[in-house]
Amino acid sequence: MIKFAYVLRAYPMQGGDYPSLEAPPAAMQQNGFKPTFKAPDGTLSPGDDVEYKYLNYIFNDLYAKAADMDSRLTALEGK
Fold first, then answer.
1. Are 68 and 60 in contact (CB under 8 A)?
2. Per-residue pLDDT tens over the stretch 11-70
3. What dihedral angle (degrees, nearest 10) is formed by the CA atoms of 60, 64, 69, 70?
4. What is the pLDDT of residues 37-46, one digit of tens each?
5. 11 touches 20 (CB < 8 A)
6. What are the φ and ψ backbone dihedral angles of 10, each rounded to 5 degrees?
7. Could you give the CA distance from residue 6 to residue 77 in angstroms, rounded to a whole number?
């Protein structure tokens, strides 16, 4: 299941190649993503557009950190 986040691809598009993995802009990393929600007055407040290249980056980072943690715990168990 984690393979999708590691496989680097470039999808040809009219404006140039679109990467499958890219770090979100710094402001987006600091502030997070705004979800779509219903405001108190009942209107729909649309959330931020989140491109899949940013989501793949986040998954890739989480999977890498989990693998690192797993290897560290495995090493501790062997001592």
1. no
2. 999 999 999 999 999 999 999 999 999 999 999 999 998 999 999 999 999 999 999 999
3. 100
4. 999 999 999 9
5. yes
6. -130, 120
7. 28
Q: Which residues contact 5 (CB under 8 A, 6 or more apart)?
A: 21, 56, 59, 60, 63
Tokens representing 52 are 């899949």
Please, are residues 45 and 36 in contact by the beta-carbon 8 Å criterion?
yes
Q: What's the pTM? A: 0.75
Separation in Å, CA 17 to CA 7, 26, 57: 15, 22, 17
